[in-house]
User: Which sequence fits this backbone?
């Protein structure tokens, strides 16, 4: 099977050579997941992705979703794909088998998700929403709620969504106005309007279970007064059977730039006063429930964006190997044309895409691996350390990765020249689909504020320091390897400068120049991400060097040499620019803050 | 009329305060174009753009073009717009009035084009193609060809196109296979297939005149054997009346990411052996004819990309002033929401868009101004100097500007949050439309090679040095202004480093490491463009400082202060990153060249 979604050799490298996931199977929780099982899972995911999801990527984009009188129809091909996806039990890969989950390590599930999202990310949105909604039930539901809903959601019999955004409450969730009034029987009557609800309505499933953020009558304003409710599309009787329509109506779907296979719904709750929900978790604790889910949701968005980039890279690479155009630049005039992979500028673009693709994969899988380590660890201090590292990496995994993924998809169009702009090839769709990953689940501006405002100071800065300690370990190992000394020194210099940048931002915050610090939040996310990428690529180079010393097979030699080239390229051609960006942050120019509204022009 | 396409104050600033276009009217060629006339032209263009083109931007995107049995239908609304456009005589703004042109300075025409393209760039493609084809007739046609075709093309009675690309001849034009066989009567029989032909077929005009690149039987291979032919869709009798169909058939149109209002046609010539054309210019000199047209065409593409960015900025700015979301970051908890323009990250994005938008406008108009200076100058040395500066700036105006324009359109989506991804707002369309400007008329990779391989060494490097001498003049002026000394020093340092970069690339080329040099071509285009932007913004700041000293009106004070902020922001927040990129070029890492094809992965 061709490498058209994610390079299997690279997926295996991260799983087995970089993270050594097999070590997880030494612990009871993951004992089934030895190397053989992991490989089988990845192979099955890859198989399903390439054979059943990828072929309908374009068709679903063109067909899109349609809306008619409250009903939403998803692309036809998604019905078959969904059936296969549920049969393969892919919705709840990491979850409790008691509720229909597979109990898989997160790292392995991410590899599977890399294939699924890289093949057909708009299709995958349905499943991710179902899973996320189910997870809320698992984490915050009563026994009865779990019994009624959970297995059906985890196995895809019922779908799920997440009713959060309102027209005037987007980034500012606390502004929401959806209202919940207790009925005295344990249920609440819900009224309100929500927008931008992925899979809020669709014809894949017989019932959709909506977690809904709403404010109980009389609750405080802002985020402190928000509660979470479980609101099914069709009510569910005590015996689990499906009841009457619950007055949750889809009032329309958005026309969008991309992800046309995923319906983005406007939802009206309780228009006829008949919408009832049950509290999920505690009163006024809706936002903390959201926060519990947020890491997983944001990691998934990073995976969505990255998967677009990963596929775009392989398409570009395969195309560049076949497309003949122009003689080699060093060949005598009149020489025959060569595949464009031989042209220096195309090689630079491809290595840009390759190194970013690899570094991003390592970051995402690593976050999953940290989650797995929490599960198998019995040392509370370790668990806290892993959790801190995850918390710091989440804005990078979501914000930095989707920013870069979009850039990579743009490069991926460029390699195809004029063809890249046509719908004949998937490159332009990947670019269009990828764009939303920078925006939803907290815009990347919000991610940047999360990193600077919350994560940098988390546990008095220990989380950030713990992460850098891991980076340092790799640098130290690399410094002992003669061929990597220079690269290690350069990553080291970047880390040192990152710390100076942190210090400088800390001083600005300390002087209470909050706005000045936050004007640098996004650039700071950028440079933090670049540093982490440098770390991951250096780590890969360390392993590759060691493996090359063991005289591997010919094909592996190429792969490991490719790892060294990725690291060399990124560290020499990206990190010096990163250090320029760090200088910008430290200079802390305030023009953007000082300029008056009139001076921006217009009106 | 609202500022929704291009900020009129800024357009006027470049025309009158930065370039002082009125000086052109002191010369016979442009004597009609005093300030009053210039302002009237811009006002009329703006009026037509905002009232008649902008309202159909979305409609035309959704309707698109349709193809049926050789016929292409453009969006309905374009018919009325086209009629008005022709009535206003906007197709041949700068051309000879004897042939239906308006004899306008190029600088002024660019301002008009800024409005037209910013309002509806897909519509404008029709007109730009007609004009470009007409220009070829004007430059290379015989008296008879001009008499038969030119006025009708310049006035829009007939359309034009440009048949260059073939499936196997894109960036490599020399690979084309379209054949021309002399018939002995001065005509040639043409056979071949062309792709990606904008406006190759459409229902706006009764006849379409196609300049076609083809190889005369027996001519040399490669670019040296390419000739240019004039091939009308319907033959034209000697008396100018329209004759039979000329066997030029549109065989289909592309489905594309954007510019849906512009049909991208596949064309079959001579499928029935009935396609006849006449030679335009000399045998085997087709490529030099192309080169004569290339500067104009590429400048226009820069204008197209920039205009998308210019509109995207104003939309983002207007939205940010109105969209209330979240309390100010420094406000106590529970404070009411504020317009998002008050949030530091949004301000940073907006000032990024503003400064780039302004710098790009100055670059483009400046190139037009240099063209005008050639027309009015009677000193051959000056003319050559202006031409050299234009030649160096063209890859910047096309390549650098469209790269940055795409980034700005991406920012423009982001400011709208989730709404930016929907078709309810124009931001996503501007991003989609803008993408092709990086690709067509020579991909930006080709532009980068043009800058490094041709333009840097043009006239033994004199052209590049002449350009930098102009930059230096501004720096020297700015250094004498106390408030601008620091900014001037930083631009100066950037120029010095650019020269070091040039020297370093020269050494690499000198050592015959051609591939190594060209692997840095695109980064070099990038840093050259940034430096030119820094120059333009510093130049604007010099003028603004002087004007502020004259105690201007309140509204102008804001505008000039905005100019100072743009310069401050760009020079402090972009140029340090640029200098990092220069270091990367000088390091000249060769990983992208050294990596083996296998090591890229896949297959």
Assistant:
């Amino acid at each position: 099977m061709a490498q058209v979604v994610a390079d299997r050799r690279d997926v295996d490298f991260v799983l087995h050579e970089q993270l050594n996931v097999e070590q997880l199977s030494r612990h009871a929780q993951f004992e089934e997941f030895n190397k053989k099982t992991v490989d089988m899972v990845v192979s099955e995911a890859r198989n399903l992705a390439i054979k059943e999801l990828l072929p309908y990527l374009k068709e679903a984009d063109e067909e899109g979703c349609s809306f008619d009188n409250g009903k939403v129809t998803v692309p036809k091909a998604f019905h078959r794909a969904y059936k296969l996806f549920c049969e393969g039990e892919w919705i709840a890969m990491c979850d409790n088998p008691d509720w229909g989950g597979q109990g898989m390590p997160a790292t392995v599930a991410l590899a599977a998700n890399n294939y699924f999202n890289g093949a057909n990310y708009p299709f995958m949105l349905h499943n991710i929403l179902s899973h996320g909604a189910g997870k809320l039930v698992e984490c915050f539901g009563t026994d009865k709620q779990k019994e009624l809903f959970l297995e059906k959601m985890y196995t895809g019999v019922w779908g799920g969504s997440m009713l959060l955004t309102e027209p005037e409450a987007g980034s500012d969730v606390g502004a929401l106005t959806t209202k919940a009034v207790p009925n005295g029987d344990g249920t609440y009557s819900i009224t309100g309007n929500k927008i931008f609800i992925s899979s809020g309505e669709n014809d894949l499933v017989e019932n959709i279970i909506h977690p809904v953020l709403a404010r109980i009558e009389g609750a405080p304003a802002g985020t402190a007064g928000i509660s979470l409710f479980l609101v099914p599309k069709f009510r569910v009787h005590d015996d689990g059977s499906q009841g009457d329509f619950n007055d949750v109506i889809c009032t329309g779907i958005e026309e969008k730039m991309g992800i046309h296979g995923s319906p983005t719904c406007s939802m009206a709750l309780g228009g006829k006063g008949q919408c009832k929900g049950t509290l999920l978790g505690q009163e006024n604790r809706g936002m903390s429930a959201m926060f519990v889910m947020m890491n997983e949701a944001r990691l998934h968005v990073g995976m969505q964006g990255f998967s677009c980039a990963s596929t775009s890279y392989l398409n570009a690479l395969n195309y560049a190997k076949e497309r003949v155009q122009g003689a080699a630049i060093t060949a005598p005039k009149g020489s025959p044309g060569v595949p464009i992979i031989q042209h220096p500028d195309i090689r630079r673009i491809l290595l840009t895409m390759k190194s970013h693709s690899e570094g991003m994969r390592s970051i995402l899988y690593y976050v999953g691996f940290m989650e797995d380590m929490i599960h198998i660890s019995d040392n509370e201090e370790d668990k806290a350390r892993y959790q801190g590292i995850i918390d710091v990496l989440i804005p990078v995994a979501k914000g930095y990765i989707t920013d870069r993924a979009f850039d990579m998809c743009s490069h991926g169009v460029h390699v195809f020249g004029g063809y890249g702009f046509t719908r004949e090839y998937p490159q332009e769709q990947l670019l269009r689909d990828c764009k939303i990953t920078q925006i939803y689940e907290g815009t990347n501006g919000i991610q940047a504020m999360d990193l600077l405002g919350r994560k940098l100071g988390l546990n008095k800065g220990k989380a950030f320091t713990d992460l850098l300690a891991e980076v340092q370990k790799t640098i130290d190992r690399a410094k002992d390897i003669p061929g990597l000394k220079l690269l290690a020194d350069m990553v080291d210099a970047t880390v040192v400068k990152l710390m100076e940048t942190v210090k400088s931002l800390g001083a600005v915050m300390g002087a209470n120049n909050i706005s000045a610090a936050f004007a640098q939040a996004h650039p700071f996310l950028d440079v933090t991400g670049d540093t982490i990428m440098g770390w991951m690529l250096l780590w890969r180079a360390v392993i590759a060097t060691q493996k090359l010393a063991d005289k591997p097979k010919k094909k592996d030699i190429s792969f490991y040499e490719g790892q060294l080239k990725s690291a060399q390229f990124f560290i020499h051609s990206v990190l010096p620019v990163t250090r320029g960006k760090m200088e910008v942050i430290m200079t802390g120019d305030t023009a953007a803050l000082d300029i008056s509204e009139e001076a921006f022009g217009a009106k």
About this structure: The radius of gyration of chain B is 25 Å. Chain B is about 55% helix and 10% strand.
